[in-house]
Amino acid sequence: MDTITEKEKNEFREFLSVIYGEQAKRWDINLKVLELFGQLIQSSDSCSRYMDMVPRPLVVGSIIKWASKQARDAVIRQLKNGGKHYLICLRAVGLSRKTDFIMASQGLLG
Amino acid sequence: MTIGKHIYVLLALMLALAGCQSVNPEDSEAVLGKGVRHELVLNQRLSLPAPEVYGKISPDEDLVIFSGRGNSVGYRWIDKEEVEFIGSNKSPYHFFNGAFNKPSTEEENRFLEGFGKIVDRSFVSTNNLEFYLFDLGGRQKIYILSGSLDFVTEITSSGDLKNIFKVSTQYSYIQ
After folding, report:
1. pLDDT score recorded for residue A62
2. Which residues of chain A neighbour B85 with C-beta distances below 8 Å?
3. Would the pLDDT of A48 be above 60?
4. Tell me, what's the pLDDT at B109?
5. Is B79:B1 a contact under the CB 8 Å cutoff?
6. Residue of chain B whose alpha carbon sits nearest to that of A36
7. Which is the most buried residue in A44, B66, B68, B124, by most CB within 10 A?
8. Which residues of chain A does B158 touch, with a Cβ-Cβ cutoff of 8 Å?
9. Gap between the terminal Cα atoms of chain B
10. Cα–Cα distance between B163 and A105 in angstroms, integer?
11. How far is CA B88 from the centre of its chain?
């Protein structure tokens, strides 16, 4: 696995804070949190209309290899380039998963 | 929401009675319903049966997690501020009641979309409280609602929630 850098962690904290509020900026970002983020992103068809119409690694059916820095960089790049409305749309989708994220950030999810 | 603002946990009583070393913390079924019942009181209003065996309690702004060896249970309260944050102008009760029974708004439908496939669900209404248990295939969620409360409670566990559901429906009450 490619080590998740502090810069990457801060990028993902920013994305998660749009979905879950400021407290997400205190979450530890580990592989489990990123996997949950991937599941959240791929669980919503209704929000996809807010995403830029560019080739995207987030298309439903593709599995994001979060352990790979290249994959993480691609996701970060895509979300930074016009993903804000998409992330806001994910707030309702992600409501039932907030506790999962917190538990994962504390290492309490297997 | 400030950290611990609305949480009222009878920690002193729980810690004083924390001699339940003979109960296996990994067995979430065994941790409830043994002898003296410990209460977890949320927002000074909703009393729930609390886990009796745990190694760690982790309170956060809107969540408290009880952790024992190999198992964790999180109790989270969702208030109007959070429902507004996701885009709904309904009260927490009406948002979740609507989502679970007759979803009509975009936010309610998106919330259900986030569940993924619902494998099974159970419902109990008692004591002015509505209890919903959802099996989402790999994870389970309990939601506790009441028209008399200005928040909704969500229970999440890394293990099975069926016994917590059963005991919660029997022993929860509004103060």
Report:
1. 56
2. 21, 91
3. yes
4. 94
5. yes
6. B114
7. B66
8. 103, 108-110
9. 22
10. 26
11. 21
Contacts from B89-97 at CB under 8 Å and sequence distance 24+? B91/B150, B92/B145, B92/B149, B92/B150, B92/B151, B92/B152, B93/B145, B93/B146, B93/B147, B93/B149, B93/B150, B93/B152, B95/B152, B96/B132, B96/B143, B96/B145, B96/B152, B97/B130, B97/B145
pLDDT in tens, A8-24: 999 999 999 999 999 99
Query: What predicted TM-score, i.e. pTM, was given to this entire model?
Result: 0.84
Report ipTM (2 d.p.). 0.87
Q: pLDDT band at residue A63, thresholds of 50, 70 and 90?
A: low
Strands lying side by side in the sheet with B39-42: B7-9, B39-42, B46-49, B173-174
Q: List the single range of B13-27, B45-59, B132-146 with lowest mean pLDDT.
A: B13-27
Closest CA to B149 of B168, B122, B132, B128: B128
Task: Name the minimum distance, in Å, from the CA of A25 to any CA of chain B.
Answer: 13
Is B85 within 8 Å of A91 when comparing Cβ atoms?
A: yes
Best of A26, A39, A95 to disrupt the B interface (most B CBs within 10 Å) is A95
> Are the CB atoms for B142 and B155 separated by under 8 Å?
yes
Hey, are the CB atoms on A92 and B63 less than 8 Å from each other? Answer: no
Separation CA B97–CA B105 (nearest Å)? 12
DSSP state of A2: P
| B21/B63: higher pLDDT | B63
Distance from CA of B10 to the nearest CA of A (A): 22
